[in-house]
């Protein structure tokens, strides 16, 4: 592979235009196609086979008019009267009806005439339900409770809810234009005396729009780090351009995919952008840094001042520069391919747990990473070839950027010498520090994104909070029990349905339960269950668990069965499923890490401590994230909430790849030194000296890119940005730069021990491009003879 990459790099450098043209055509073409055919992303989450999903599907069979609650094109408008007034006041009601007339006139609603003001709707509910329930002998107190549980008007008549259904097959099919026709009207009236906010499937999509602020901040900080790293404005721009091209193609590809599937989630593009931008910059950084070292080595310009170095490079012939580019891609490029492969493995492995929306998110991110690798290997060399001898021009004023080949000790070498003096102390400090930070992870709670997890101040969150205040928190977490009485004699079915209602009412955490619909033959009934607490309250999950636990007893007593569904049960089941697969996935990733590094380093101990270090950094990341975002430590977050259900598992997949990147770029030089006769301790120190600077720059860039996403409003993206930034910091600076070298010094020669029988059967993976040694020597001699380079 190293020889193939050498040829790719040198060819792209010399014959730059075809390579540049191909990538630019791809970018322009896919952007045009996405602009023509892309559809809105989905805001629903579902996992086939869950009890709540199966019950939902059964309900849709028995009641053909029922919609999937997680994707129906519905929304709710919550209206609050001005202070000191109620919605029943004539002038207030008149204003509401004027607003609704304008909404109905947009023509985007299905059955627009059914959209009426809350006062009129509440009167209709009471007029319809009261005589029907009285005829059944239902006590007046229960009738009042049933009406209150579904009434669109609060008890104090200050707050009302208006339900709307858009004329579309699903929420995803509602165009932004149609949604804005309604929200523009609602926002206009919200600016007046009324308080008008909205939430639900359709309106929730309006609150998930993202801007490019985070990407721009990340790029700006990355630019500063790259300028310091290379000491050149032009060289610093190369990784940024390369990353932008790769991410642009990846994101446009994701947008285009919406034309063929409705499984692309709202969060998928941002997640892909986040990881693609970070690895795209880092991979390009590794190659440009190696290219710089190769140029310096060939010119013999280690000790030249910046101005003299630039002059020497300007006189360097094309053949010599192409050879340096080939060596850079053949060596650092090989490591990039392997590092990128580890990221792909970790992401694609998410498909093993069989959660469709998570699989799509992972595959989209994986494709973006793959594109970043390909761009770094082919577009980047061509771009460098376009600049030619000007690549390290526009020098930054200040000291010369240190060269790892110099004999002078670098900061990395000074640090690793400190670790070498007291390896036990540094090992203990690193392990104890991460272990202590990990403690809050034992309290981790998971929940799916709802209007209740939206950012404070957004319309969905305000609507959610207003509903909870006026109608009780359980109004935001309705559940539906589907009672199947097919095997019950027809004359006994009403009693069975009534028994189900009584059982639910006597369950802790249930505020009310009532029959809302039955089939014509009376073999199936829907019972609306209103819990006492909201959708993300742990007590609601406990109530759901109790209701399900009682199903077996109910079946034994009555011969009927039931299942619980609705948005809250579906999301609760998804969270439980993700929590259940978390530990198995961690084990899968740890085993993968061990096997991958076993191939790279041909050692038992090196991959073992690398995998354990990865596990420690992940646990510390969970602890820090739980402490700040869930428990509100230090008052940094003003709205502590459970972590998003799929955050931990996505975090593990992403951090695994990044951790292996740093392990490979640091430890391959250590192995190279050891195999060439250095003592284990000296090999560790020398390898650290060569890799520390570029890994530090790469880690700082990743931390900056990820941390910039904390500025986003979406809770998942904000938390994921923080978690990834912290994970990279812990793994790069505590695990890879403290725990790993300390352990390597303690193990000494044993660090590279591998059973002979295993050494014979393992394939030889040339990550550092050792196979290019002969080619490099021959090519260098040829260049000396023909053009005098290095002479």
UniProtKB/TrEMBL annotation:
The chain crosses the membrane at residues 20-38, 216-236, 243-261, 267-288, 324-353, 359-387, 424-442, 582-601, 608-629, 649-670, 691-710, 722-747. It comes from the Bacteria. Residues 216-386 form the SSD domain. Residues 61-89 are annotated as: Disordered. Gene3D superfamilies: Multidrug efflux transporter AcrB transmembrane domain. GO terms for cellular component: plasma membrane. It is found in: Cell membrane. The keyword Cell membrane applies. InterPro entries: MMPL_dom, Mycobact_MmpL, SSD. Keywords: Cell membrane, Membrane, Transmembrane, Transmembrane helix. Its main location: membrane. PROSITE patterns: SSD (PS50156). Belongs to the resistance-nodulation-cell division (RND) (TC 2.A.6) family. MmpL subfamily. This is Multidrug RND transporter. It comes from [Brevibacterium] flavum. The lineage of its organism: Bacteria, Bacillati, Actinomycetota, Actinomycetes, Mycobacteriales.
